[in-house]
Amino acid sequence: MFKKSLAALAALSLATPAVADVLVDNIAGIRIDEDGEVDRFTGLWIDDDGRIKQVLDRRDKRPDGTTYSVDGEGRVVIPGLIDAHLHVMGIGFGALTLDLSGTRSLAEAQQAIADFAAANPGRQWIIGRGWNQETWGLGRFPTAAELDAAVADVPVVLERVDGHATWANTRAMELAGVTAQTKSPSGGRIERLAGSQMPSGVFVDAASELIYSRVPAPRPRERDLALQKAQDILLAMGITAAADMGTSLEDWQTFRRAGDEGRLKLRIMSYAAGVDAMEAIAGPGPTPWLYDDRLRLNGVKLYLDGALGSRGAWLKRPYADDPGNTGLPLQNPAQLRNLMSRAAMDNFQLAIHAIGDAANAEVLAAIDELAETYGGDRRWRIEHAQVIDPTDIAEFGKYGIIASMQPVHQTSDRLMAEARLGPDRLDGAYAWKTIADTGSRLAFGSDAPVESPDPFAGWAVAFTREDADGQPFGGWRPQDRVSREAALAGFSADAAYAGFADGRFGRLVAGERADFLILDRDPMLASADDLRDAKVLETWIGGERVYRRRAD
Amino acid sequence: MFKKSLAALAALSLATPAVADVLVDNIAGIRIDEDGEVDRFTGLWIDDDGRIKQVLDRRDKRPDGTTYSVDGEGRVVIPGLIDAHLHVMGIGFGALTLDLSGTRSLAEAQQAIADFAAANPGRQWIIGRGWNQETWGLGRFPTAAELDAAVADVPVVLERVDGHATWANTRAMELAGVTAQTKSPSGGRIERLAGSQMPSGVFVDAASELIYSRVPAPRPRERDLALQKAQDILLAMGITAAADMGTSLEDWQTFRRAGDEGRLKLRIMSYAAGVDAMEAIAGPGPTPWLYDDRLRLNGVKLYLDGALGSRGAWLKRPYADDPGNTGLPLQNPAQLRNLMSRAAMDNFQLAIHAIGDAANAEVLAAIDELAETYGGDRRWRIEHAQVIDPTDIAEFGKYGIIASMQPVHQTSDRLMAEARLGPDRLDGAYAWKTIADTGSRLAFGSDAPVESPDPFAGWAVAFTREDADGQPFGGWRPQDRVSREAALAGFSADAAYAGFADGRFGRLVAGERADFLILDRDPMLASADDLRDAKVLETWIGGERVYRRRAD
């Protein structure tokens, strides 16, 4: 089926005829029906507008004549997966950043830096991260001169693996105006060359800002590149649609350029980065669905608290490992309600970040108050909803509140969460099943680039609560696992519903867009381990093949 | 043909079937051919995508069968008119502003204000202009209390006819924080109530800013309304496309909302308000043509000088009526070239405001320098090009420079220009024909809302150089008249060419969009006076009837 090829297949070679019906036949199709049960089918008949005309059973008559046929060769087909919470541009910019975390010597790092510069001509700055002079066996910080030896003509700035130091080349220091006369700022230190006042090229803690403050905002062309990169990554992982959580005006313009030029393949449900961005992007209400259901500004992302790891999550009682601290809300009650009203009065959807139990209680209370004024189908979203006081959980069942949760966070956070919360406050932590049982709808996502956007990892965690190493055996608080089918719905139909996209995409049913994946295995039968290893062979969006896996 | 109706015809009632060909037959069609000659035709066969399929002569066979036919009843059809320089949102906001210039008493003004408030519910502020206590026979300024008597609950701010005083109601003064303690700013005066320190409600000169600085920027909904108003005005006048000179990001988002929602009828060729807006709107290069050729960000509008009336135009020698003053450039030579390069390097089109002969010489010199680096089809535009040193005029013939000129400005400015320039500097003033004879292309416009956008007024001026009163008889400097046909081209095909729209719209030829007008008279035979009175009976854009004149 696949030809060996060193070059990535060009987009054109993926194209299916745009003006004819398409029949994808001889497949082992899997979908989740309205009752949450697996339904199997063998063919998809797709209209020339990219919508499903008919889901075909073995017995159904196939269309004949002018239809373009694709032989699935018996392979597994599932709905395109949807990530209900990620950061599209963050994924793209992250992928465009030089990663030095694998380098084992200064020389190897220098080579990687030079290679990266050669592979990325025209960059205004080269940005990277991950270096560690200890793993290099250097026994000292590297110098600007050593970085100049790799790249001298373009400014380079590289963050140490722990984020607490920055390595810059001479060009970067020149642009930042850093000289022997520059004093270390409070909370930071400029490293100096031995026996000299000359900055050595490494800036510790707050001193890093001397360099980073001069890194220009990305240009539109770089944003376009980042979006392309993010799309490439997501399509290859089987993500056909995603909620972009915190879309800036610049992000939005990037999405629109891609849409205007026919480069937007991924479906993006956007949530503006605050109410000002919301108004600047969409004006007096949510945008229409644009580009054949590929882009819509649904609403606004608001933050009520921070994260558990940094003890910024707002808790009802102090942190178990920091008794004087409860975290704190980023908005007072009036501010939160004002922002929510400003969005809701113009029919924008609310997606509110709440991690701690106090934050979740406050958002639930605010929704309870506002739901009276702003009725109808609102689909209030709470993003993360990580720690809920069990006495508050029932509230999720009211007003059709959506819990937008990220299964992999549970495995990444487990030990940290136990430390932060203590043993007697875990009942409402990452409580997927408990929340779902209230009648709330679970929308699953990854929070990429904070975690990998790989949806198969999230899916496997969702029904096991075990990490990639199978720990803890039997699952952490396994009563909050969801079924394998419910997890698939959380990563498809329910994630679409959470973004007002039901009826458009998310299900393999007649009338919805033909977004689907061809896989190398049956995800309903695979072990959790095998599911994590599932390979996406092809990704189709709107009846068009947008990704095909290269032969290994 | 027309039914009497008090209500404006709703847009829906104008609709022609979208899925069938349309034949507009039995018309007295007029178009300008490639040689600038009038060509007459009798029918237009329009494709279902709104493009002209065939321009039909009396002898040509008509399509039959499924085509939707419109009987033109022998009426005159001309190409849709294109304004090469106006301000779309300015026209709309101007039309939404209360106009008191016709009121003859305070009581009449109060009634007009109250009526306006009632007709415009939901306005955050009521803004108006044109009052004059002298024509009211009041003998004193009006007061805030007298304004409160008309509207008290919404802040009201009204500019005096000469722009040198502002009348505010109590609510506006409260919002501005103006009290008895507020001091008059330098260059301005707060009027006070007799025998009191209380502000009376009138603010003179710089004091007006105390109020105006509190008027909020328009909300998106108000912008949408302004665009709708501007479209209504322009379509009724026979303008089917326009270059928007100085599009802000907010303007652009308004245009896009209209496009996304199918409300954009007018074709808009946008020139961003500076290079930052250009990048924010379009990113790394001009946008594609959007919405079936209804919107494109072509390039950027820059300013090199001011206007002749306020002596801001930059002249080579001092003003005849102000011997110490030559006006001045708003950019130095390096700044101008930097801005031009920043746009040209990303293939944005340049449209540079230059009024005085020094400004024009400088833009011509800058183009001469940049044209070497930025080759190809650039269509450098000089906006206004009002006063050119005769020794510089030949430069217009190089590099395909476009002179974007506004015929009506010539009649409005005539006496003022004679005063500013003196008798011996008029040879290159409003020198349409002389510029055209160099090989430059003339693109005609109105600069609305500075002047009325009525293209028939501009057309009549272009071949007469007489004002609406026929003054001066025979035309001012008649050697710079252009032919009636060339004037029509300047308001259609050449205005399209100036916006890179040739091949898309601007001509009634097969393959271009079917943008045309049905008129009540033959503009090629009418006297200039009669041409000014021409009535647009119908306006069609892209094969769709978008305006129909109500029966008188």
TrEMBL record, chains A, B:
<dbReference type="InterPro" id="IPR011059">
    <property type="entry name" value="Metal-dep_hydrolase_composite"/>
</dbReference>
<dbReference type="Pfam" id="PF07969">
    <property type="entry name" value="Amidohydro_3"/>
</dbReference>
<keyword id="KW-0732">Signal</keyword>
<dbReference type="InterPro" id="IPR032466">
    <property type="entry name" value="Metal_Hydrolase"/>
</dbReference>
<feature type="domain" description="Amidohydrolase 3">
    <location>
        <begin position="70"/>
        <end position="547"/>
    </location>
</feature>
<protein>
    <submittedName>
        <fullName>Predicted metal-dependent hydrolase</fullName>
    </submittedName>
</protein>
<dbReference type="InterPro" id="IPR033932">
    <property type="entry name" value="YtcJ-like"/>
</dbReference>
<dbReference type="InterPro" id="IPR013108">
    <property type="entry name" value="Amidohydro_3"/>
</dbReference>
<dbReference type="GO" id="GO:0016810">
    <property type="term" value="F:hydrolase activity, acting on carbon-nitrogen (but not peptide) bonds"/>
</dbReference>
<keyword id="KW-0378">Hydrolase</keyword>
<feature type="signal peptide">
    <location>
        <begin position="1"/>
        <end position="20"/>
    </location>
</feature>
